[in-house]
Amino acid sequence: HSSPSHLSTSLLILRERFCFQKLPSAPVGLESQHKHLLELLKRTAIHGESNSVLIVGPRGAGKTMLLKSVLNELLDVKEVKSNILLVQLNGLLQTDDRIALKEITRQLNLENVVGDKVFGSFAENLAFLLEALKKGDRSSSRPVLFTLDEFDLFTHHKNQTLLYNLFDISQSAQTPVAVVGLTCRVDVLELLEKRVKSRFSHRQIQALSPMDFPQYVELVQQQLSLPQEFPDGRFAHEWNNSVKALCEDKSVEDVLRKHFNLSKDFRSLHMLLFLALSCVTPSNPTIKPSLLLEASRLCTMDCKANMLHGLSILELCLIIAMKHLNDHYQDEPFNFEMVYNEFKKFLQRKSHSVHSFEKPVVIKAFEHLQQLELIRPVDGSASRTQKEYQLMKLLLDHTQVMEALQRYPQCPTDVNWSD
Fold this sequence. Notes:
Helix content is about 50%, strand content about 10%. The protein has 20 helices and seven strands. The protein has helices at about 5-20, 30-45, 65-75, 80, 95-105, 110-115, 120-130, 150-155, 160-170, 195, 215-225, 235-250, 250-260, 265-275, 290-300, 305-310, 315-330, 335-350, 360-370, 400-405, and strands at about 50-55, 85-90, 145-150, 175-185, 205, 375, 390-395. It is flat.
């Protein structure tokens, strides 16, 4: 095999690819959507025609990637690049219309033009900004492209003022603007007020990745392969062959199918491949199927079940007592006293393996379980009740508890009480 330096170079290339989310330049399988969106934005950028459109699709489907690839293609046109203005807003960052307006002013570089002016209304302020962009006559008004990420969050702003004004301008013959919203909510139109809805063009582009499983496996292979221009051709060839063999392995196929069924997005795929890659060393210079299996286990770990591993024996016994109560009373809520009685019964039966605990100690353990959010109070049963009688619900299911018991280190055998 080649020298360790080639291995470290190859690992560096792949790590960079996974950490910096080096995405393909255009999303796979969204060609018609790409064409449609490009055509729309061209009309605004070149012919000064206003438009509005929503890109709808699940998280990780490639909505942002689609928009980015369209913008890159659009900005390659010389007349567009010198003319169009971009304003990018995000519902997570611009949490109300005042902040959004400040951000629009900043991105259009108009802070000094606005200065200390006071405006009567939001609409007046926005109209002033767009007016300031004009170069004189109506025909030379510069087109503005607004992109609103997490579009559905803007619908929660007071009176939906921002959306109303943006859509209003896109309907009227003022400045040419294009409003592009990105959202993962299918019911987003239901969230719009009537006056906002009537000004929206009702154009929607659905970004649903039509990728099937063989394409997904091919994608994994591409993501793990070294590029053509790798310094040592022979090493790259050997590495790429080992990746090809890896993707054809039956156990690997099962792991990939599981991930494919959970989510087809790049982020979770990169996470999986990165974990597998981090175990590659000069003594284990290739990605073995076992590494991928382990990485998959880490990716899909159940955090609640993991928390159970850190509990004390007493806390674990209380969880089992709660599970018993759940089994007896068909998941009815319980309080501390009920759990304590159940626990005492257990102590009488198995007193030789678990020490007897004072009641305050048991209460403390019970409170700790609540802090860990393994149990929580039932709504509305709080304030007035004494804490020992406050009704609680267990937030773990049967399998999580049983799994924790089987994997608990040095667990007294008697604690595995399922009788």
